[in-house]
UniProtKB/TrEMBL annotation:
Superkingdom of the organism of origin: Bacteria
TM ranges: 51-71, 208-229
Region (Disordered), start-end ranges: 1-40
Protein name (Swiss-Prot/TrEMBL): SpoIIE family protein phosphatase
Domain (GAF) ranges: 380-544
Keyword Membrane: yes
Domain PPM-type phosphatase: 562-781
Length: 908
C-alpha cells in the first residue's frame, strides 16, 4: 500500500528543516502543541485560506437569513392583523343584538359597553360601529363618538367585507369594515375593527431578539464547524502552503515508485500513463513503456486485454511468466475524473501455495463435519456403512469398501476369528473387480487388511504395485484392479472401544497423488466416527432382534382349525422398535369362532410383554363363552389392576390398550362385536361393496368405570370381515379419516380370497418404513347349511327324553354317523334329563355336524351345573361325569334367556 505523507505521523526531514528556516527568517519561534493553530490559520496556509473563505460565506448566509426572517415576520404579522381584525368585525356584526341596537333610541348606550368588552377580549385596538353615513356609534375614545369614520366604507355599504391599511385617528393601522345586514340583505350599519401598526410591528419586534439569538447561535455553530473542518485540514496538511503541498506530492511520487506493489495508470484510449518500478518489474515492461499503447508492450493477451478494457477487476489472478499476479483495477472517471483506469499488481505466487494448503485443510474439516451429521442417520448397520462409503467418494478417495464381521451384521459381538463380509461399496465406476457387496472375504496374513486387523492400526500402501502382500491376496482380481488405475490404498480398522467391527478400505485411482500421512490421519478420524455409529446400530440391531423374537413368540404361530371362517393375516413390526399389536383366532363352542385384534400403547419390550399378558387373558376369558362386551369389561378390569400393581412397584404402566372382539356364528350367520377404543372393522360384501361397521366405540382398556356395548350384524356367506390396528390407517403424515378412505379403496380393488385381500391392502397401504406395528386379519365367512343342523323343541316331561333319543338316532343315520348313535344317545339323555329336572322351559335340543358332532341343550334357567364325583352309595350325581367321559369337550354357555349345555365328540 502507498502511505500518503499527509496521513502519516512523521514528516519529511528535509521538508521540516525548510519550514523551520522560513519561520526563523520571519522572526518566529518554533510552534509547540498549544501555539500551532493560530499561525496555521493566519491565511498563509491552505487551512487558513479555507477558514477565511468559510467565515465570509457563513456571515453572508447568516445576514441573509436574519433579513429574510425579519421581513417574513412583518409580513406574517400584517397578515395576522388583517385576519384577526376581519374575524372580530364579522363576529361583532353578526352577534345577537347588534342589528337590533341600531334601531334603539340611543345606539351608543347599548353598543359602546359591548364593543369595549369585545375589544379587550379580542386584543384589538378598536371596535367601531357606524351607521350607513359613516357616523361612529362607538369608539375606544368617547370624544370621537358621533364623528365621521376615517376610512373607506363604500364596499361595505354594497355588502362586502374588506380590510385596508390607513392613517386613522389613533395612528397608522390595519382595519376591517363589515356590513350589518337585515335578513333581506339590506345594509343598516357597519362594524370596523382594527389594530395599529405599532402593535402590528410589535410582534415582529418582539421576535427580533429571538431571531437574532438564533442567528448568533447559527453563526457560532457554523464558525465552530468551520474551525473543526479547518483544524482537520490543518492536521491532514500539517499547515502546508501551496508550495509545500507541491513538494509533498513530489515525495509521494518518490514513494509511489518505491512500494512493493505495482501501480499502473492507463488512459481512456489504452495508453500507459504511469507504471511504477514494481509494475515494470512484475510485467517486465520496456524502459519506454510510458506513453505507448498497452497492446504494444508485449504482455500476454489476457493481461493486455484486461489493462486496455478498463473494466472493474478484483483479485483476478493472471499467469505472467512464471508468476501469479493478483490484479485489481478500477476506472478513474467514476466521480468525474479523467477517463482511464488505475491498476494494482501483487505477486501472489507464494500466497497461492499457502491458500491451496488452507483450502485443502478447509475441505477436510468440512468432510469431518459432514461425517458427523451424515453418518449414523439410522440404526441400521449396513446403511450406516454405506453412508460412510458414499460420503468420501470422490472427495477423498475414488473407491471405498466396508467389510464387517458377520456377527456385527446380526447385532452380535464380532468374532475376530471369522471371515468378513463386504457390507458397503461406493466408487466412481461400477465395473472395477473389487469383491462385491455381500461376498465373504478371508484376507491372507500378508495382506494390508490382515495386518491392520492384527495390529488394530491403519495401514497405508502408497504404491500398490510394490505391495506384494496385497497382490498375493487374489492375483487375478488385484491385476484387474490395477488395470483400472488404482495405485494407492489406506485400510483402517473399525474400532469401537476394545471391539474391532471390521475394516474400511480407501482406494485412489483418478487422483495421481498417493495417500500420505495427512490422508491417513483423516481416514482414521472418519473411520473412528463411523465406528461409533456402526456399533450403536449393532447394539440396536441386537436389542431389536431380541424384542422381535419375544414379540413373535407371543403371537400365534399358526391358526387353529375351524370351518366357520377362511382366515388370512399379516403382522408387520415397526422399523423403529417392536410394539404391542396382537391378533387371535379362537374357536368357541357351537362351531362359533372369535376374532380379536388389539394394540398396546408404546413400543419396546415392555409393550411386547404386556401384549402377551393381554393375549393370554383373552384366551382364558374366551373359554368362558362370554359375550364380547363382558369379555372387554373383564379385560379392562385386569389392565387397571396391572397398572395399580406396577405403579406400586415403580414399574412402567401399560398406559392404555385398545381391543376389538368379534364372535361369528356360522349357524345363524350372526356376528357380535364390541370394541374398546379400537378402529372400526371393515366389511366387504360378496358384491364387493365396502362399509365400516358402526360398532359403539368404547373407552380404551385401563380407564375403568365405563361400560362397553355390542353390535350385531348378519353376514352373508362369502363376506369378508377385515380387522386391523391403527398402524395401517394412521401415521404422522395423515389422519385416520384419510387412512380409512384409502383402506376402503384398497379393499374395493382386492381379490375375493382373504389372502388376496391381505396382499392388496398391505401393498397399497404399507409405508416404506412403518413407524408403528401393523396387524391385519381378513376372515371370509362360511355358513352351516340346513343339512348340517337339526333342532327339536322338548316339552318339560321326562317321557320326552325317549322321543328325543329316537329323533337324534334317525338324524345321525341320515348323516351316516351310525357309529356315534350310542354315545350321542347317552349324552343327550343326561343333558335333557337335567334340563327337565333342574332347568326351566323352554327346552330345546340342537345337533350340529361340523368338524365335530356338537350336541346342545338349551333351557330357560341360569342355574350353573357342575361336575362332581358321586360316592358309592349315592343314587345320582353321575350324569355330567358320564358326559365328561364320553365327550371330547363340554361346557356351559350363558344367554340372555337362559343357558346352553354343550358337548362335542369327534366324528367317527
Amino acid at each position: 500500500m502507498v502511505r500518503l505523507l499527509g496521513r502519516s505521523g512523521t514528516r519529511s526531514p528535509r521538508l521540516g528543516e525548510e519550514r523551520a528556516q522560513r519561520r526563523a527568517r520571519r522572526g518566529g519561534t518554533p510552534r509547540g502543541p498549544g501555539t500551532g493553530l493560530r499561525p496555521a490559520l493566519s491565511g498563509r496556509s491552505v487551512a487558513g485560506q479555507v477558514f477565511v473563505l468559510h467565515v465570509v460565506i457563513v456571515l453572508l448566509l447568516v445576514a441573509a437569513a436574519v433579513a429574510a426572517l425579519v421581513l417574513q415576520g412583518r409580513i406574517d404579522s400584517t397578515q395576522e392583523a388583517r385576519n384577526r381584525s376581519l374575524a372580530v368585525a364579522e363576529t361583532f356584526a353578526n352577534a345577537p343584538g347588534t342589528r337590533a341596537a341600531l334601531d334603539a333610541p340611543d345606539p351608543t348606550a347599548v353598543l359602546q359597553p359591548a364593543a369595549e368588552a369585545a375589544r379587550k377580549a379580542a386584543n384589538v385596538d378598536f371596535i367601531v360601529v357606524l351607521n350607513t353615513d359613516g357616523i361612529r356609534y362607538t369608539h375606544p375614545k368617547p370624544d370621537r363618538i358621533g364623528k365621521k369614520f376615517v376610512g373607506t366604507i363604500e364596499p361595505a355599504l354594497q355588502g362586502r367585507s374588506f380590510t385596508e391599511e390607513i392613517e386613522g385617528t389613533i395612528g397608522q393601522l390595519v382595519q376591517a369594515v363589515v356590513p350589518i345586514e337585515t335578513p333581506d340583505g339590506r345594509v343598516v350599519g357597519l362594524v370596523s375593527s382594527g389594530i395599529t401598526t405599532e402593535h402590528v410591528g410589535g410582534a415582529a419586534n418582539r421576535q427580533l431578539p429571538l431571531v437574532l439569538g438564533a442567528a448568533a447561535a447559527a453563526l457560532a455553530l457554523a464558525l465552530g464547524g468551520t474551525a473543526l473542518v479547518s483544524r482537520r485540514l490543518l492536521r491532514q496538511t500539517h499547515g502546508l502552503g501551496p508550495h509545500e503541498m507541491t513538494r509533498m506530492y513530489e515525495h509521494h511520487d518518490a514513494v509511489l515508485h518505491a512500494v512493493r506493489e505495482g501501480v499502473i495508470i492507463v488512459s481512456g484510449g489504452g495508453g500507459l500513463l504511469l507504471a511504477n518500478d514494481e509494475a515494470q518489474r512484475l510485467l517486465r515492461l520496456p524502459p519506454d513503456a510510458e506513453g505507448r499503447q498497452v497492446s504494444d508492450l508485449g504482455l500476454d493477451p489476457d493481461t493486455a486485454e484486461l489493462l486496455a478494457s478498463g473494466r472493474v477487476a478484483t483479485d483476478e489472478v493472471h499467469l505472467v511468466g512464471d508468476r501469479l499476479l493478483a490484479i485489481n483495477q478500477r476506472p478513474t472517471d467514476l466521480r468525474g475524473g479523467p477517463p482511464g483506469s488505475v491498476t494494482t499488481l501483487r505477486d501472489s505466487t507464494e500466497l497461492r501455495a499457502l491458500s491451496g494448503r488452507a483450502e485443502q485443510a478447509r475441505e477436510r474439516l468440512d468432510m469431518l463435519y459432514s461425517a458427523g451429521v451424515g453418518i449414523g442417520t439410522s440404526l441400521d448397520v449396513t446403511r450406516t456403512a454405506q453412508e460412510l462409503a458414499q460420503l468420501v467418494v470422490p472427495r477423498f478417495a475414488d473407491y471405498v469398501t466396508v467389510d464387517l464381521f458377520e456377527a456385527v451384521l446380526s447385532g452380535d459381538a464380532p468374532d475376530t476369528g471369522t471371515k468378513l463380509r463386504r457390507a458397503a461399496y461406493s466408487g466412481i465406476r461400477k465395473d472395477i473387480p473389487l469383491y462385491p457387496v455381500g461376498e465373504r472375504i478371508d484376507f491372507i496374513p500378508t495382506s494390508p487388511q490382515a495386518r491392520s486387523l492384527l495390529t488394530g492400526q491403519s495401514v497405508v500402501e502408497p504404491e500398490l504395485r510394490a505391495a506384494t502382500g496385497w497382490h498375493a491376496q487374489h492375483p487375478e482380481r488385484t491385476s484387474g484392479v490395477m488395470e483400472h488405475g488404482v495405485h494407492s490404498l489406506i485400510t483402517a480398522p473399525l474400532r469401537a472401544g476394545s471391539l474391532v467391527l471390521g475394516l474400511v478400505n480407501f482406494w485412489r485411482a483418478e487422483k495421481p497423488e498417493p495417500f500420505d500421512t495427512e490422508d491417513q490421519e483423516l481416514a482414521e478420524e472418519l473411520v473412528a466416527r463411523a465406528a461409533v455409529s456402526i456399533d450403536n446400530a449393532r447394539r440396536y440391531t441386537r436389542e431389536h432382534t431380541m424384542a422381535v423374537t419375544l414379540q413373535r413368540s407371543l403371537l400365534p404361530r399358526s391358526l387353529p382349525e375351524q370351518n366357520a371362517l377362511d382366515v388370512a393375516y399379516r403382522y408387520l413390526p415397526a422399523q423403529a422398535g417392536v410394539g404391542g399389536d396382537w391378533f387371535d383366532v379362537l374357536p368357541l363352542s357351537g362351531a362359533r369362532v372369535a376374532l380379536v385384534v388389539g394394540d398396546v400403547v408404546g413400543h419396546g419390550l415392555h409393550a411386547a410383554a404386556t401384549m402377551g399378558r393381554l393375549r393370554t387373558a383373552v384366551h382364558n376369558f374366551s373359554a368362558l363363552d362370554l359375550a364380547p362386551d363382558e369379555l372387554l369389561a373383564l379385560l379392562d378390569d385386569m389392565v387397571t389392576r396391572i397398572d395399580q400393581h406396577e405403579a406400586e412397584g415403580g414399574s412402567a404402566l401399560v398406559t392404555g390398550a385398545t381391543c376389538l372382539y368379534a364372535v361369528y356364528d356360522p349357524a345363524s350367520r350372526q356376528c357380535t362385536l364390541a370394541r374398546a377404543g379400537h378402529p372400526p372393522p371393515a366389511l366387504v360384501r360378496p358384491d364387493g361393496s365396502v362399509e365400516f361397521l358402526q360398532v359403539p366405540a368404547g373407552p380404551p382398556l385401563g380407564l375403568g368405570g365405563l361400560p362397553f356395548e355390542t353390535a350385531e350384524v348378519e353376514l352373508d356367506e362369502g363376506s369378508r370381515l377385515v380387522l386391523y390396528t391403527d398402524g395401517l390407517v394412521e401415521d404422522r403424515t395423515r389422519d385416520i379419516d384419510e387412512g380409512l378412505e384409502l383402506l376402503r379403496v384398497a379393499l374395493e380393488g382386492a381379490g375375493p380370497s382373504p389372502e388376496d385381500t391381505c396382499r392388496a391392502v398391505v401393498d397399497a397401504r404399507l409405508p416404506a418404513r412403518p413407524s408403528d406395528d401393523i396387524a391385519l386379519i381378513v376372515a371370509r365367512t362360511r355358513a352351516l347349511g340346513p343339512d348340517q343342523v337339526a333342532h327339536w323343541e322338548v316339552p318339560s316331561d321326562p317321557a320326552a327324553v325317549a322321543e328325543v333319543r329316537a329323533a337324534v338316532t334317525r338324524q345321525l343315520t341320515v348323516w351316516g354317523l351310525d357309529e356315534a348313535v350310542f354315545t350321542t344317545e347317552l349324552i343327550l339323555s343326561e343333558l335333557v334329563t337335567n334340563a327337565i329336572r333342574y332347568g326351566g322351559p323352554p327346552i330345546r335340543v340342537r345337533v350340529l355336524r361340523d368338524r365335530t358332532l356338537i350336541c346342545e341343550v338349551f333351557d330357560g334357567s341360569s342355574t350353573a351345573p357342575h361336575l362332581r364325583y358321586a360316592a358309592m352309595t349315592d343314587e345320582g350325581g353321575r350324569g355330567l361325569f358320564l358326559v365328561a367321559q364320553l365327550a371330547e369337550r363340554w361346557g356351559t354357555r350363558y344367554l340372555p334367556g337362559g343357558k346352553v349345555i354343550w358337548a362335542e365328540q369327534p366324528l367317527p
